[in-house]
Amino acid sequence: MRAAGVELSDLATLEAESIHILREVAAEFEHPVMLFSGGKDSVLMLHLARKAFAPAPVPFPIMHVDTGHNFPEVIEFRDRVVAEHGLRLEVASVQERIDSGRIQVGHELESRNRHQTVALLEGIQQNGFDAVFGGGRRDEEKARAKERVFSFRDRFGQWDPKNQRPELWNLYNGRHKKGEHIRVFPISDWTELDVWRYLAQEEVDLPSIYFAHEREVVEHEGLVMAVNEFFPLPDGAEARIEMVRYRTVGDATSTGAVRSTATDYHSVIEETAVARVTERGATRGDDRFSEAAMEDRKKEGYF
Questions:
Q1: Alpha carbon of 301 to those of 81, 138, 159: distances in Å?
Q2: With 50 as the cut, is the pLDDT of residue 289 above it?
Q3: Which of 61, 64, 232, 287 could form a disulfide with 88 if both were Cys (CB 3.0 to 4.6 A apart)?
């Protein structure tokens, strides 16, 4: 990409495209919100938003769809970022909806990833959000590769992958009726490696869980699981202390780590460059075993 006679690098091009999308939404919609979990993709989006609107503050709130099964490092990081940058945080709590009976679970420690849909849709409706920024990337898995940058959701929050609007020459159609909304994916064209390279270049802070550290883990159904209050040691299993890091952070009952010695950006980038399995495929227990799982959840209103 060339701007004013200057050849932009690949990361500068991705940054410019994402900032363009963020500004388009801020100009076109009345009540946008940015999903923020404290994970690396949402951290990237927030950093881009701060650059897009500087020196003014970010002109929309952030929303965390909280399963209640969180890694403590991630929640500490989320709250610190909110305080440092003076952000307005909305929390759509799965636990609150379990307590009120709106969400039914089989037992306390089952994965709540699927139940996030109810909390997300209620959070959008209750706050009147008409555009929702999500950190989905097309390289993550097949369903997310089908998304447009502006992805229409009907008044029930549902997605029809066969009925999407064309996006020609970076022209985005945000038309919607009251009760409908648009999911917006400003980092659609980024890869996991792009994300790591850019965050390293910008020296962006991340939760410590993304870098190698010692943790008590157990191998369970092909995943390296942290032993904690959300994942007790299975009967007959033996835990041990290993050096691990997380490629993605989600529900602690179903998100695995990877064995690693990468303690800084440079070494994580080296590991990511040779990885042959996506972060969700390698570490998310509820996504690995069905190619249709994510698409079905997205049709229901998931991220």
A1: 27, 18, 6
A2: no
A3: 61
